[in-house]
Amino acid sequence: MPVVETSIEGIKRFMNQHAFTQTQSNRGASATSQAPITVTVTGAAGQIGYSLLFRLATGEVFGQRKVNLRLLETEEGAKTAEGVAMELADCAFPLLANVDISTDPAAGFKGANAAFLVGAKPRQKGEERSDLLAANGKIFAPQGKAIGEVAADDVRVLVVGNPANTNAGIVAAHAQGVDPKHVTALTRLDHNRALAQVADKLQVSVTDLTNMTVWGNHSATQFPDVAELKINGEPAADKLDAAWINDEFIPRVAKRGAEIIEVRGRSSAASAASAACDHMRTWLAGTAENDWVSVALPSDGSYGVPEGLVSSFPCRSKNGEWEIVQGLELGDEQRQRLNKTVAELQDEWDAVKAAGLV
Questions:
Q1: Which residues does UniProt call coiled coil (predicted)?
Q2: What residues form the annotated binding site?
Q3: Is-contact 4 274, C-beta < 8 A?
Q4: Catalytic residue numbers?
């Protein structure tokens, strides 16, 4: 996919304008001489957390800025997290300032500049969706409350744990004082999967492709949309036949997670962690010129998605703020697919409200 414009410089510029840079005197200092930023990762002992932490410690996401990692785990996962912390120490990463482990959200999120909420309760065999939503609400509501109370004022939150969109809505509802647009959910994985499928179909590089869009929920109802897709700046839709788009591309991207579980025997981990890195890095450094990425964030009413519902949209980042791309025309079939995934999101949110979780 396109490399974000001067990625490291973009991150430095953002940090010099926001609370990631903590004092005026730091602004002229080198990145490594500035105070470390604090990054909280929940579910740190799990597979995604494990894949994510080492990449955060290398400078891949936050540039040449030292990082304090906060590993927030359950009581059961704390010992495994200790082993992960030992491995992080053994890597001797120059940019890793410190690793703390906590089971208390108030301690784990204290002063956090960025938070990756990875830990979630997976759906069990025979379990109803409403049960899963209720169980995860009990995880994400107190985390949102703690973020609102103790995290940095301009904390950036990315929810990875599923159902990610609705979990992000729960966090945003409880994170008092945090800008709702600073609470997002991960659909960059779906975006990356869509790029990879098209690149393979057309035998081009993913870096040749721009303006991919994933709408709606991070679920099987999601709508990967190639209507605005470009190859080296030229429209790509006419190079992809409708039968392939409707019968192969859309269902394969939407069900890719299940396909990986079937083949690998485990859910996506490294690819989810990679997408989480992409999401946060692009958020801070900005999107490439004439491109956008897919981000799930609270709707402002754009494209008829009910206000406040956490849905994936085409977004650009500028100065560390996501903006929903405006003015895209949706045909009847696009509108039908968007309405279907939004209806699922609304059902999930209604179930959360009925359970008294928000």
A1: 328-355
A2: 43-49, 123, 129, 136, 143, 160-162, 193
A3: no
A4: 218
3-state secondary structure of 57: coil
List, for residues 225-279, the tens digit of each pLDDT value.
Answer: 999 999 999 999 889 999 999 999 999 999 998 899 899 988 899 999 999 999 9
Q: What is the pLDDT of residues 90-130, one digit of tens each?
A: 999 999 999 999 999 999 999 999 999 999 987 766 666 77
Give me the domains of the chain, ranges plus CATH numbers: 34-185 (3.40.50.720), 187-355 (3.90.110.10)
Name which residue leads in pLDDT, 178 or 32: 178
Strands of 114-117's sheet, edge to edge? 96-102, 67-72, 37-42, 114-117, 156-159, 183-185, 293-298, 310-318, 321-324
Question: What are phi and psi for residue 26, nearest 5 degrees?
Answer: -75, -15
Binding-site sequence positions for NAD(+): 43-49, 136, 143, 160-162
pTM of the full predicted structure? 0.91
Query: What's the pLDDT at 267?
Result: 86
